[in-house]
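User: My instructor asked us to take a sequence, write out its structure as tokens, and then describe one feature of it. I'm not sure where to start. Here is the sequence I was given:
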Amino acid sequence: MRYFRLLVLGNGISAYGSYLNMVALNVFVYDATGSALAAGLFMAVRLATNVVSGWVSGRLVSLYDRKRLMVGADLCQAVALLTLLLAPDGVRVGLLYALAVVTGGCSTLSQVALRSSIPEIVGAEHRVRANALLVTGRSLAMIAGFASSGLVVAHLGYSAAFALDAASFLVSATVMFLLPVRTRAAAAAAGGGSAKAPDPARLTARILLGTAPLLMAMIAIRAVDGLGSSSHNVALPLYSSSLDPAHPATFISQFWATWAIGNIVAQQVIGRVTRKTGRTPGERAFALGACVMSAGFIAVFSGLPTVPAVIAALVAGAADGFTEIVYVSRLQTAPDEQRGRLFGLSASAENTGFGLGMLVSGALLETFSPLQVVAAFHGLAIVLCAALLLLLVVRGRTRPAPPAEEPAGRDEPVTEGRG
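Assistant: Let's start with the prediction itself. The structure tokens for your sequence are:
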């Protein structure tokens, strides 16, 4: 774990660049074109790239060195942003859609590669703590990126925002390149990875058959969670405006600040509890956490007074952080040769849910209230979670405790990990 905190720092810096990039580029597209359609098309291209690159990333991560893929992904994003920065004003608009493809694809590749590598970097017994640290770093980066993007653009301009963004990816690539970490299981690394890689279609079929129905149910729930997440993201500005038309940003700020606090607290708590007990929450904990998360988001939009609404946002954020760590840690129990494709499938499912939800919830909000739309999308997630819980109860099945001699890749009592 001694090197992993440096990796978390580098990943958090690149995440800050990604969130700064998300705001600055969207605003730049609108300012440069004066067209809401162009801005929407830019977002659509990036989301579509995220979805497609999930499938591609799963194969790349299974075949090639993950550390090099992560370094390359950060460098590609840095080069793309520097190209945009140095391009003449008349050419910049045309480069934006190419940039959307590069940043969307590379960010997904980097995420899939890193999540697939965690058990090999820190040891399987430390993966929950490592996931908690990573998610905490990204949550803090999200807050910093969103909070500073307006100030950077307003006071320093788009060029400074693009330069800062590119620098964040260069720092992340440098940190990853210099860290002496192993990102692939020893047997796979010795075999060269690609030489023994089976046909991807057959491998995917074996994964589906070998893990169905529980793991596929968890991935499906994450996709529906993406629908729910998009619904409250789209509905929040409308709901906040209805609460205080004179200060529409007030409730939005309260919501995201409280959500982030709950998210970070949950991540720290689960990391500490897992470290002390040596046990990882399983499918039941994931389903219960997702139910609580969706119920919390619905409560936020139910017209509660400010204090109860803030408490509901805190609960939703805590449950969100909890389920994120449990879900990622569960997928990481898969064998190393399968892990990349599972995370690629998961990334595609989550991005598909979020992108589809943005379109559908935006259309539904023309007719229905924010509460109705949010309750419909998050209610669907609750129904799926309840079905998963029922399946687990009926079958009497939770994730089995591993025997003492089980090899790394399953839950074990916490011992001193690798660097």
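For the description part of your assignment, you could build on this observation: Confidence is low (pLDDT under 50) at residues 193-201, 404-419. Try explaining in your own words what that tells you about the chain.
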